[in-house]
Fold:
Amino acid sequence: MLLLPCPNCGPRNVAEFRYGGEMHPRPPAPEAVDDEAWTDFIYMRANKAGRHREWWYHHRGCGLWFLAERDTTTNTILRTYLPAQPHGS
Amino acid sequence: MAPEAPFDFVFAGRVYRAQPGDTIASALARNGVRVISRSFKYHRPRGLLCAAGHCPNCLVQVGDEPNVRACMRPVEPEMIVEPQNAWPSLGFDLMAAVGWLERFLPVGFYYKAFIRPRRLWPWFERFLRRAAGLGRVNLATPPGDYVKQYLHADVVVIGGGRSGLRSAIAAATAGADVVLFDENPTLGGRLNYSGDETAAAERAALLARVAALPNLRCYTQATVLGWFEDHWLPVSQGNRLWKVRAKAVIVATGAYEQPLLFANNDLPGIMLAGAVRRLLHQHRVKPGERAVVVTNHDEGWAVAAELLAAGVTVAALADERHPTPAILSADLPTVPIFWGHTVVRAEGRASLRRVWLAPLTVDGRPGAPLQTIPCDLLVIAAGSTPANGLLYQAGARIAYHDETGQFVVAELPPGVFAVGRVTGWEEDQAAEVGRQAAAFALDQHTAPDLPSHGTRSLPAPCYRPTPGKAFVCLCEDVTAKDIAMAVAEGFDSLELVKRYATVTMGPCQGKMCAVASIHLTAAATGRSPAATGVTTARPPLTPVPLGVLAGQPMEPLRRTPVDEWHRRHGAHMMVAGLWQRPEHYGDPLAEVKAVREAVGLIDVSTLGKLRLTGPGVPAFLDRLYTTRLGDLPVGRVRYGLMGNDEGVILDDGVTARLDEQEWYITTTTGNAEAIYEWMQWWAQAGWGEGVHITDVTDDFAAFNLAGPRARAVLQALTTADVGNTAFPYLHVRQLELAGVPCRVLRIGFTGELSYEIHCPAGFGPYLWETILAAGAEFGMRPFGVEAQRVLRLEKAHLIIGQDTDAMSDPLSAGMAWAVKFDKPDFLGRRSLLRVRAQGLRQRLVGFEVLTPGVTPEEGLQIVQTDGNGRPTIIGWITSSRYSPTLGKAIGLCWLPAELAARPGTPFTIHREAGPVQARVHHGPFYDPTGARLRS
Structure:
């Protein structure tokens, strides 16, 4: 089982966490984007092979939502951190 | 407790005598029992082959437990052991006739045979089910007592042979916390049965050092099932599954001795050298009277000498090598030596009677003339393959070494180490690797060094094509010819051969056949073994009882504070997510009537409950809910609908503002945890300035007091004025009821005057009983979820998740009134604007049933006949109940918007017993103006 380092609690079994999906910041002004861009935001994900930024929630722990950078080709966690911008980046 | 004197046990209905320390297999060998099982496909007799827990030959049934490896399980007094796959008996197996049908059961026969004629399949199936399968499962067996347990270590050593022990001792001496697992009953590996005194002394010395190290724990009969990310190892030991987390892992799993390929190579009496040595030295059992040894390295000579010393006649020693001065030093004066010979054929009925030896020609193939030698034991000491499945799983790179014909470790991932024969070499630096692993685990350095590249290779097996039935895979009865045929039929890669011929897919998981199938596939395709590759090694490496994986049932169960009262009062309980809720107390329709005409009380403690505090809450709620909640005044309650950016309904509930900076929010029972996480995400990801969210679901018990006499009951419990003016609809009050501090919300899901009473959970049982007592004189009844469903349906209130799904938006669901487009940006606004502009396709509306006496089941489809007279599906019903108040069946359904638009539009529900007529209804069925709520 993968170990995931929670920024608060340190490395924990991944079973303590819930996956929150790929990081994809919400447009700050939804009305300002056209239908196509809005549809992309809602439905499309990059699903990258390689460095992937994603949300994790420590739901059997401290309750922190944080970001992880993971190499999806090797399933190694490169780093975990808190978002600097609203909705992640 | 281990027995100390000889004792009896039963095998195949006969009583046998065992010695202390025997395994089932050694006890059978001691009693001269040769045939232990029948094979899977041809029902051929099979006997002890590896005695190391690797092959399928000695799988037996012990009581109710199928597929026990007889060579690994210590025999116990009174144990009842039965053979598997034999019908009606081991000695006389009718299914052995299948052997004569061989040409009708070619490789891949299950893709070819028994397919036609179809009508005969039930007969074929009965036959195949009896013929195939491993052991029997007794469905009446009481559930086993299985446990799971975590275990942490700096260094885990897998395998307690010489190398494993030495590396474990070194790692522990270097200060690491070390755990060692071995699947055998005793530690020491080959040192247990090497047959010389040096080995026994070395084993004793190693075990003495182990005993002196408190930071080295050893577990025997403990099988590591696989390697998972970050050195997470499931280990099966008896009825326990250890979940082990290590910082570094040393793999010391040794090697699997390999059989040879020749005609009838599966006859009982043919054994691998390791099995012979275990019987001779570990159990003091003579494995036969007249032996032939076939070998390609020095071990065969040592075994021959040991057999002679045990009083066994060695009729011949066939050494596949041609003599060189170096190996000629071996000396067995009384044994006829056949240099450059191998075995090409074995003969016998239930057991070995003679073998045929043939000289090897210059190109390595068996030639002429043949020699026949009578014997009852054939010992194969012809090479091993590293037991490297765990290394593959851990991501090690393993290469085929052309020179030695062996698979050797080429590269190891960080934290994974290998010692001993698993590396593909005979020498090792076990102590040095143990120190490296300890240093890695203790963070002293991070770059692991490769295991030393040895010079003395682990002897590799050699596979030669021979005529006759030569079994590659003993589990599934796959012969060398079958592999050639699979390749000829076009399955020309190893992974395809595996799937088609099922070689490596049986209980041994390739331990006995993987290397042979690589060499045979390579030969049949004209590729090198290196280019042929290997099949993927997946967990579990060794079969494991399902009970060990399942463990104890650990599904949590949530009970409300009043749970015990419900059960004492005849509640019929139902499951709602993890919760247990009363569905009804015997008569749901009477419960509906009580609420409509008098008063009722329902336990709604399962509602999700959140406490939000801080100055940022109004803006936060306005962003998350489609409803306007930011301007909610203190003391007021408002319904809230929540959506996501797709415009899909997520949840609903009520929000009460208790104070200038404190809000109390309920969510639906099923969504409580998800909505808390959802809110936390939006708060933590950027919208949470001045917002603090606490989940208080378990802190409060909650009851809904509903019915025209609800106020009278409430007034009986408090001195505060709860009149309609002092405490109007959609207000919240903090009241003391019967001395209990409560927050009371005047809301009405049921459509009657009602109060939702929230009190600290500990007071729940007391307050529940006190309210019921106060309500007795007003005709109060407790009511359950079923009555509530009817009551809310009469008001046409939807239930999220039942009447809506992951495609439902609030406009189509008839909740446009709860979407405040005049608010600035909120979740779903952008998508819902588009839905509004495009117009609705489907709508959720009420319906009443016109066909008398029918309440259609929820989930039925609504159909319409199209232009060609064919019925097409145009909608479905999501809620349906008989309403005792209205005297007819009503419900909610999704219909095309144009049909849903006009009240009274008739439509047809498809039902197996005959079509049901219904018509569209708009708004609540009961009290459409909501006067009763406000009264």
Q: What stands out?
A: DSSP finds 25 helices and 47 strands in chain B. The first strand of chain B starts at residue 7 and ends at 11.
